[in-house]
Task: inverse folding
């Protein structure tokens, strides 16, 4: 694997300034969710699709809409319902009357945008959900025997509620694996709620102006790929993902299916994006550890016994991070790692 | 001078250059790698050292039991440990850290965002040198220390643990006393050079043959009999030699009062004949100095005869002493230098019923101890007349005499046959009160 030229200091500084602007703008949309915003930005930089899960009213949709506006990209929102059909997402061939005669013309669906906001994605039928599979993975849509390439960049930012699950269709593992991050949106503490009450009004959306041009964003996406991934970090990612397999480590007890190689690629991409976000020309162990939870959390499937015992996928990821050290070689028994205060 | 002062200035200033920063981190990584590798080697070599020390402790103790110098053992231990240490280093090499691996450990532990690795590739500058670098690893030496302490204790025990006395020399059974006595008499005769060496050698060969017997046969009945016979034969031969020498001395002395010296010459010839043909012939060199005929006797001056007589008498005394030692039951040979010398009562009386005195030299380091029990006599004088078998009713009390045993002196002179075993004598002696009781009974 050839190593691309790492970003220069000038490029890194410019990228950091741009991303700082983007983050600052998003923080005017969503209060008190700095980590969520950072991960969202990192996920977008890594060209990943994001799944946000949280209770209604926490600002998931607002964040996604604000991101779309701040990036100056074309965004479309689809409210997923049980009666939504695949064609409603991807588009349908319609019969068009022309002077030359009748012919079928493909009417593009809302998926043909830079950002598709799939609101409450788990309410759509599996058939409709799976219509997104090809779009998310290959960034193209096939309908009526014709393949249509989606605009570049293309992101799916989906939301789902963890409650009121009656009549919903949980996303299958194959589709979950397509999401780079699954981000949990938590409720706000009192001081954040006070800020929301003081600065927002019900029914009025915050005004977000584009702070990153389309070209700047495209340059950022190219720059992310030039971020160097040291071999030792790649080795760490590989060991971490492998350890998630059943029986591969003590931490994976209760795991039915571990993370896939796609998860390793996602970890590497997300670590690179986070490294760029922090102005570094390389990814680090700390970057991997920071993105491991949203990357691996929805990719590790537990068995029933573990679920009954109250184990969670995020708990498994925490154990993996604690068990797998950055340095593969173990210390001899006559030495122990010192605790850093 | 000024230039020197200007050059000396930066030495005291804390100038941190990229090169020095790099050197700082590389040095720390190398030191960490060295420490980890040493710890890995220690973890392997500690138990191996214990097992090596265990083996050598046994070997050193065995060497001490065999009274072999330990220098070779220590040298072998050092070589063996060195070989094991090298072997452990070879086995542990897979776990050894390179500097790059130690660098990864350092940066991950200090949460440096992989900057050390990136800096080594030239991607970023080396991180600033911290004011104080926290320790990355700490020693856990309880396990190795336990192994090493145990190994040391074993070696110390092997060197300083007391060796049982019976194991200090050898496990060979000590030859029977009779054989030892015979050997010591032969040694004494050899040193005195009074007897013909060939004859002494024949007797000595017999003694050596007896000594070469297996340990479990040393105290068999036949071996004891043979040893006793050799001792008696040696003593008798020595006594005969002493008598012959004494007779020769007497003949020489009588020549001074003998006018024609015929009688003295005859006695001397008889004595010389006895010396030549005895069980232990006199030394040929000695006999050459003695006058073999009447003429030679006459050629000697009275002083020469007297001097010769004195020499012969002294030789006779020496040979008689050897023979007398057998009767006294003492060793003639030089005592053990380690033995403790007691005062003793003087030599035994010799002769019939010889012995009588305690040995002048205690050849054993420790005297036999009868124990600290309370000795109580048995009441009743009559009990003295019963043997233990009579008391228990297992014997009839009839004296079992050996009719074939002839208790006569084996030779004339000062040495008689020593008391033989099994000759317990039944003493039928009644006290006055018992006699009175018997008289009353048979009235």
Result:
């Amino acid at each position: 694997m050839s190593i691309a030229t790492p970003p220069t200091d000038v490029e890194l500084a410019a990228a950091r300034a741009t991303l700082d602007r983007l983050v600052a703008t998003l923080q005017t949309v969503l209060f008190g969710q700095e980590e969520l915003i950072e991960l969202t930005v990192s996920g977008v930089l890594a060209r990943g699709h994001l799944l946000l899960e949280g209770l209604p009213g926490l600002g998931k949709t607002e964040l996604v809409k604000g991101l779309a506006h701040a990036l100056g990209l074309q965004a479309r929102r689809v409210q997923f319902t049980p009666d939504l059909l695949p064609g409603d997402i991807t588009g349908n061939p319609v019969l068009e009357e022309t002077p030359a005669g009748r012919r079928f013309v493909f009417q593009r669906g809302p998926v043909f945008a830079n950002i598709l906001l799939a609101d409450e994605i788990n309410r759509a039928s599996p058939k409709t959900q799976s219509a997104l599979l090809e779009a998310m993975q290959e960034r193209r849509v096939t309908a009526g025997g014709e393949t249509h390439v989606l605009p570049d960049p293309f992101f799916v930012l989906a939301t789902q509620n963890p409650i009121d699950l009656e009549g919903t269709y949980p996303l299958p593992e194959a589709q979950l694996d397509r999401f780079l991050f699954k981000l949990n949106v938590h409720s706000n503490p009192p001081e954040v709620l006070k800020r929301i009450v003081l600065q927002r009004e019900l029914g009025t959306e915050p005004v977000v102006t584009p702070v990153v041009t389309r070209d700047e964003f495209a340059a950022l996406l190219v720059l992310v790929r030039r971020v160097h991934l040291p071999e030792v970090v790649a080795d760490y990612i590989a060991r971490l993902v492998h350890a998630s397999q059943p029986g591969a480590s003590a931490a994976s007890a209760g795991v039915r299916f571990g993370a896939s190689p796609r998860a390793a690629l996602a970890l590497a991409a997300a670590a690179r994006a986070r490294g760029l976000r922090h102005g570094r020309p390389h990814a680090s162990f700390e970057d991997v550890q920071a993105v491991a939870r949203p990357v691996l959390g929805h990719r590790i499937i537990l068995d029933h016994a573990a679920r009954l015992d109250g184990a969670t996928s995020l708990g498994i990821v925490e154990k993996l991070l604690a068990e797998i050290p950055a340095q593969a070689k173990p210390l001899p028994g006559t030495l122990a790692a010192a605790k850093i205060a | 001078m000024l230039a020197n002062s200007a050059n000396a200035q930066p030495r005291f200033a804390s100038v941190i250059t990229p090169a020095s920063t790099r050197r700082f981190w590389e040095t720390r990584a190398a030191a960490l790698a060295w420490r980890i590798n040493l710890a890995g080697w220690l973890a392997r070599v500690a138990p191996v050292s214990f097992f090596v020390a265990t083996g050598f402790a046994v070997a050193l103790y065995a060497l001490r039991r065999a009274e072999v110098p330990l220098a070779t053992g220590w040298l072998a231990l050092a070589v063996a440990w060195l070989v094991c240490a090298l072997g452990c280093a070879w086995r542990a090499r897979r776990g050894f850290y390179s500097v790059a691996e130690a660098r990864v450990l350092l940066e991950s532990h200090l949460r440096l965002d992989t900057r050390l690795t990136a800096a080594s590739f030239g991607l970023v500058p080396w991180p600033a040198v911290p004011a104080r670098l926290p320790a990355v690893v700490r020693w856990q030496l309880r396990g190795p220390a336990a192994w090493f302490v145990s190994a040391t204790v074993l070696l110390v025990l092997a060197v300083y643990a007391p060796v049982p006395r019976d194991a200090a020399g050898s496990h060979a059974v000590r030859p029977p006393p009779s054989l030892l006595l015979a050997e010591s008499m032969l040694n004494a005769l050899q040193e005195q050079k009074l007897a013909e060496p060939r004859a002494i050698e024949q007797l000595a060969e017999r003694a050596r043959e007896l000594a070469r017997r297996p340990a479990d046969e040393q105290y068999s009945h036949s071996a004891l009999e043979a040893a006793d016979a050799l001792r008696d034969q040696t003593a008798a031969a020595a006594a005969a030699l002493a008598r012959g020498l004494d007779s020769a001395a007497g003949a020489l002395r009588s020549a001074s009062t003998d006018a024609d010296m015929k009688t003295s010459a005859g006695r001397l010839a008889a004595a010389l004949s006895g010396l030549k043909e005895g069980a232990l012939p006199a030394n040929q060199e000695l006999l050459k100095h003695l006058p073999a005929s009447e003429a030679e006797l006459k050629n000697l001056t009275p002083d020469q005869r007297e001097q010769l007589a004195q020499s012969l008498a002294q030789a006779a005394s020496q040979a008689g002493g050897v023979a007398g030692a057998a009767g006294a039951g003492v060793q003639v040979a030089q005592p053990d230098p380690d033995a403790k010398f007691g005062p003793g009562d003087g030599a035994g009386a010799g002769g019939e019923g010889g012995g009588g005195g305690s040995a002048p030299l205690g050849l054993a380091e420790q005297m036999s101890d009868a124990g600290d029990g309370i000795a109580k006599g048995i009441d009743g004088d009559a009990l003295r007349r019963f043997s233990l078998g009579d008391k228990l009713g297992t014997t009839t009390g009839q004296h079992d005499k050996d009719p074939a045993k002839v208790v006569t002196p084996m030779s004339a002179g000062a040495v008689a046959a020593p008391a033989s075993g099994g000759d317990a004598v039944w003493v039928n002696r009644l006290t006055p009160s018992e006699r009175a009781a018997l008289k009353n009974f048979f009235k």
Strands of chain B lie at 137-139. Chain B touches chain A through 35 residues (CB under 8 Å). Residues 16-168 of chain B form one domain. The mean pLDDT of chain B is 76.
